[in-house]
Amino acid sequence: DENQTCICSPVLADEWTADVVKSIDALVGSCVVLPCTVSHPGTYLSTSRLRGIWHRKDKWTEYFYHEDSTKILDSFKDRTKLLGNLGQNNCTLEIVQVKDHDNGPFCFRVELVRKDNNEPTKEKFSFVEKCADIKMIHDVPKPKLGPIKTANPGKPYTLTCSVHHTCPSHRPQIKWSRENKDDEITEVHKPIHSGIWEAESILSFVPEEKDDESELICTATFNGGMKSEEKFTLNVKRIENYNHIIIPAVAVAATAVIFGLFCVLMVKKYNMWSRMSGLSRK
Ligand SMILES: *[C@@H]1O[C@H](CO)[C@@H](O)[C@H](O)[C@H]1NC(C)=O
């Protein structure tokens, strides 16, 4: 009996260990990758000696993944794949076209098979204490744009758009609304922690004054076709022009000078007049 073998296994299971992500978000309609590593005692075992299976936690014969695809649950047929190489201790599972009811928990099981007939030996382990739960996400994650700063005309400007996801095998694509041939785009893809990844696109360009107030849109397209976007209005500094200060200042100064000259002239005239009238009084 298959189940009994497994129930007996915890005694030996001290030596066989698996590390499976506990909980992971998955975007419904997209894909998800469950990270998993397995290690066994003794010497190296090639992939052909190991059989990796993913099954339901409470029903060990309900297979989410099995190398014999006829054994896989109908609802998971053609949707699961062992991405990891068992010979390299990697039991990572990929699920595509995630459905709302794809709730596990998903447990990994390893069987050591005989070399001659590919039949399982007594060494089989179901790691039912370390199963993965999938949390379904319905809202497409919005990308993040930054840093928001004012651009200087003629100076290089860099903007980053990034989004987190859980499907490194079919990562989201990030596109920009700008389509200038001199723009430079760098793509970065990196793990954040336990199954969560970040896809990032870095846009570099040299803004001109006419780009002021222009709208920049960054769109993330997830596997499965779901899209989300983030917008940003570019601010480009004006090239400084002081005419609006210089012209009035010159006008005020000129007026003051003319008025001053006028006053001096009037004082002189008055003095002359008073001297003349003084003379006449004498
Ligand atoms: C396991 O395999 C996946 C898919 O090939 C890979 O992305 C991941 O880095 C591997 N994990 C380890 C620990 O090597």
Task: Describe this entry's structure for a reader.
The model is unreliable at 1-13 (pLDDT under 50). The protein is built from three helices and 18 strands. The chain has three domains: 2-137, Immunoglobulins (Immunoglobulin-like), CATH 2.60.40.10; 144-233, Immunoglobulins (Immunoglobulin-like, Sandwich); 242-276. With 282 residues, the protein is of the alpha+beta class. Strands 6-5-9-10 form a four-stranded antiparallel β-sheet, with no helix packed on it. 2-acetamido-2-deoxy-beta-D-glucopyranose binds next to loops. This is Ig-like domain-containing protein. Residues 143-233 form the Ig-like domain.
Q: How would you describe this structure in keywords?
A:
282 residues, alpha+beta, Immunoglobulin-like, 3 domains, four-stranded antiparallel beta sheet, 18% helix, rod-shaped, binds 2-acetamido-2-deoxy-beta-D-glucopyranose
Secondary-structure blueprint of this entry?
Blueprint: H1 2-8, H2 10-13, E1 17-20, E2 23-27, E3 32-34, E4 36-39, E5 50-56, E6 63-65, E7 80-82, E8 93-95, E9 106-113, E10 120-126, E11 133-137, E12 144-146, E13 157-165, E14 173-176, E15 184-193, E16 196-205, E17 215-221, E18 227-233, H3 243-281
Parallel strand pairs: 2-11
Antiparallel strand pairs: 1-4, 3-8, 5-6, 5-9, 7-8, 9-10, 12-13, 13-16, 14-17, 15-16, 17-18
The structure holds 2-acetamido-2-deoxy-beta-D-glucopyranose.
2-acetamido-2-deoxy-beta-D-glucopyranose binds near residues 84 and 90.
